[in-house]
Every structure is written in structure tokens, then in C-alpha cells.
Amino acid sequence: MKKCNTIISSWFFAGLILVLLSTTVSAQQFSIEVSSGAFDRDHSVVSFYLPGEIEAGEYNLLGEDGIETILQVDVQNRGWFILDELAAGESKQFVFSADQPFTDESDLGVNYLLDEQTITINSGEVHVLSYFHGDNNPPSELDEGYRRGGYIHPVYSPAGVVLTNHLNADLHPHHSGIWSAWTNTEFEGRTPDFWNIHNNSGRVDVEEGSLKSFRGGVFAGFTSKHKFFDLSAPGAPEIALNELWDVKVFQSGNGYHLFDLEVTQTVNSGKPLHLPEYRYGGVGFRGHADWDDPEKHFFLTDEGLGRDGHGTRTKWTHIGGYSDGELAGIAILGHPSNFRSPQTVRIHPNEPFFNYAPQQLGPMSIEPGEPYIARYRYITYDGEPDPDLLHHLWNDYAYPPGVTVKIMD
């Protein structure tokens, strides 16, 4: 019994020490230095990991100029805030105390609405996008194979113009807003096509109950899991890939919406998925039905190319046009960490379809123990695209401000 009491006492004191350490960390102040580096910063997303364990939530971040802003800490102990302005080569100091939470929930301007089919993310009271975590409702002209979820639609411009399309019975109904699938594949000696679902050899579905949502003062969003089913497998369908989507919608900027999509794919077993060279497949974008008229939409790449940018390697690509008579567009920015970055692009010769397609440069594979990760940032706006702004936003995405965090005495 004495030995047992000794063990219990050891556990008690160890737990007490952990509580004291946690209390010390939570009451600690941090100095945060943000460096702009080589680029001017304006409405820049800043993120950094914090020492110690900080409870997820919103906190006051005090700048050296005395102006407060919101710091959002996520469940990975990562802090996020929006840097309003900082010239190239300069730095700015902030102070953050973990015992000073931000309490005015009325100012937590990035939020979501959830129903049985979709989650809709708003910046303030303005819709930015919706995601189908449940099944859609195909029109009567389409068969039940098109009933599915796992994609983003609609995507909106700041003025509320709808930029995407889905379930278009007249033209490529398998194109659904922003979605992820592979076309030309090899798996266990078979060739499932997860893109053209009407071929009934493969499809991508949401894993039921996998949606996790979050909101805050800096961003709101969700994570969701998808399954790539090989329908050509003998007997029951076989899962070839597991996919995780992480979507973050940030505070809207000066005349634009901004959101990030990170896609992580892993094989479901010890069997790789091979992707032969092909012109499209990956994360796709389908524009508004009005853009089906090639005279009502246009492309622009970071090198100033239009449709002739197909097959080139680009940092960003714009697609836009007239939806219900209103001119609006979206730019898709590729992260430099992506496989074969800058990735080659598929620009359709006459339809409003676009995607980054790294397999254009040759065969690739998703191997056991080696996740395939693709990161893209989306910018939506009204009117003509501003190439200077898009170059600036790509630099922000590719080379974010530097951050140094120190615990203050």
C-alpha cells in the first residue's frame, strides 16, 4: 500500500507541475516581430507557431503604434492575423498576452452557416463560397450518378456575382465548381477515371461525418475528407485514395475575397496510384454558365498570356467574364511548394475550364507513405483583373512576412 501511495503522490505532483507550467505559459507575454522582407505588405496573412500551449481562440494583439488587431490561435497552436501595411525592408513589433482574450464576438467577422447540404462561409454579411458536405440535387435530365458532394460552389465576387457552375446538364455536368479528381490513372492494373463520373469507373465522395468547421476574427473554414472509389475493381468498389481538404476563408481585402485550399492525398493501402502523362486532372475550376460562350470570358496568366497559356508553367492564372451582365473574375495562385512548381496549366480552348496539371510534364505517382499535397490561393474580384495586385498577392502567398516570437521577461 505504501508503494501505491508513493506512485499516486508522484502522479499528483507531476500533474501539479504541468498545471503550474500551463498557467505560467497562459499568463506569459510574447513579443512578435514581423519583417516584410523584400516586398511591400498590404492586408497580408501572417501566421506563426507559438511556444507553449495556448488555448484556441481570439486575442488582442497590440502594435507598437498602439493599434489593436485580432490574433486568432488555432488548434495547432498557430497564430494568425492580418497585417494592414508594412513597407519592404521594414519590421514592426507587436505584444500578445495569452490572458487577454478578445471578447467582442460581434467583431468576429468571418463566420459560417451550416445546413444539411452545404457550409457557406461569409466575410461579414457577404457570402464568399459554399461547399457541399452533403449530396447535391441533380436536375431530372441527369442520372443519380451525379448526386454527390465534396466540391465548392458557388464562389462569389465581393459584389455577389456567382463565378462557378455545377450540374450543367447541357455541357460537362461532371464539372463542379472547384473540385479535385484524377482522370488518367493506373491502379492495380486497372484504369479508373475519377474525373468523368459518367464513365462509371471511378468517383469521389465525401466521407460521411468528416466535416469539421471553424470560425474566428481572422478566418473561418472547414476540413473535410473524401474517398476516391475505384468502381472498376472486381466485386465491391475499392478505395484508391484518401483525401483531406483544408479550406480557410480570410477577412476580405481591399476589394477582393481571399481563400486557401490545401489538398492532401494518401493511398488507402500499400498500393500506389500511378498518373500517366495527361493534359488535365487535379484541382479543377468551372466558370459560370454564362461563360460557356467563349466571347463572354477570358484568361490571363502571370506572363500575360490568354488561352495560349495552355501548357505553360504559371504562378497564377485569371479566369473571368460576364455573369448576368456583370464582369467579375477569379485568380488561382499556385504555391511554390507544389509538385513541379510552377505547375503547368490546362486552359480549355473555348470553355471556362481551368486547372493546374503537373502530370502534363510526365508521369507521376502517389506512393505509400508519401502524401501528395497541393496548395492554392483563390482571389475573387469585380471588374477587370489587376496584374500588379495579383503579382503582389502571389508574392505574399509564396513569400509571407517573416515572424520572430520571443517570450517576454
Folded structure, characterized:
With 409 residues, this protein is mostly beta strands. The protein folds into 2 domains: 2-107, Immunoglobulin-like (Sandwich); 110-398, Beta-galactosidase, Chain A, domain 5. It has 2 helices and 26 strands. Strands 12, 13, 14, 15, 16, 19, 20, 21 and 25 form a 9-stranded antiparallel beta sheet that branches. The protein has a 7-stranded antiparallel beta sheet with strand order 2-5-4-3-6-1-26. β4 and β5 (78-86) form a beta hairpin. The model is unreliable at 1-26 (pLDDT under 50).
**For the terminal residues, how far apart are their CA atoms?**
44 Å
Radius of gyration: 23 Å
> What number of structural domains do the residues give?
2
Strand content: 35-45%
How does CATH name the architecture of the largest domain?
Distorted Sandwich
Could you say which overall geometry the principal axes of the C-alpha atoms support?
Answer: globular
Average pLDDT value?
92
Note poorly predicted spans.
1-26
Tell me roughly what share of residues is in helical segments: under 10%
Strand pairing plus helix content: what structural class?
mainly beta
Task: List the main descriptive attributes of the protein structure presented here.
Immunoglobulin-like, 9-stranded antiparallel beta sheet, mainly beta, 43% strand, 26 strands, Beta-galactosidase, Chain A, domain 5, single chain
